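User: Some background: our group keeps a shared notebook of sequences we're curious about, and every so often someone picks one and asks for a predicted structure to add to the entry. Today it's my turn. The entry only has the sequence so far, pasted here. Could you supply the structure so I can complete it?
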Amino acid sequence: MTQTRAASQRVLLWATLLVAALIAAVLTPGRATAASLQEVTGFGSNPGALRMFRYVPDGLPAGRPVVVALHGCTQNASGYGTGSGWTQLADRWGFSVVLPQQQAANNASSCFNWFQSGDIARGQGEAASVAQMVDRQVADVSGDVSRVYVTGLSAGGGMAAVMMAAYPERFAAGGVVAGLPYGCAQAAGSPYVCMYVGATQTPKQWGDRVRAARPGYSGPWPTLVAFQGTADYTVKPVNMTDLMRQWTDVHGGDQVADVSDSVAGYPHQVFRDAGGRAVVETYSVTGMGHGQPVDPGSGSEQCGSAGAYLLDVNLCAAYRMGRAWGLG
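Assistant: Of course. Here's the predicted structure to add to the notebook entry:
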């Protein structure tokens, strides 16, 4: 009798587990196996000595967008990809993510070298390495070359601006979070002056720095979405103002907002070019310090997870960028 009872209990246990598995499969259709972050080697000559990681949702069809997401100082590709919400949105909306990773041998704090002349020029250093990653990813997943985007936080945001300037033909748009305008360190004479004070440049001078990064290029130029905390004492808010001045000038627009409203309670502005197209959007996150805005949760506008330099302010920057870019 004891053996019979034990056998019955085992059958009941297996039946319970089977039912649980079936329920899970019904609740998450098509997600029986989750994609994972993968490292890619041999993606080019890699003059900047960076590492390449990528996230490709299972079953991703050809012709889908590609987002390049650059981490901030002290972060890595995996933590930033997850924490920012980009891998979550990749599953939700169907695109792949390239996640470059800095190495300590290049920068002791794992910052991308947005301030080094040899890393921000076309065909050189870290900028060239990231461009090679883009080419490899588009080829491997048959991505849509007209829908490639670049974004990043802090030093990664500075490098996103570098990619927009040095390789504008590769990116439809960029997103800079707590970052710096292209050529800021050179204009200010120091990366620290740029970060803490800003550089004194007119909109045309800012624009000229971008135009000089890709001589002879006539467009189209990437559009910009920028986010900045008003209480950021690492990268002062003036840098988002200078980003706006730089990229409105590149697009031939003025520096007067065509739309001024609020999103999730935060000031939001839209700047249009002469043809009425939105070319720069800014989000000024009141009271936020240095970091990436996230909004953890399962709601339709939520994404990301809180952590170091990943700040829960009830606004997910990745979601807002993705919507502006038509990803979802």
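Suggested note for the entry: The chain has a mean pLDDT of 91. The longest helix spans residues 2-27.
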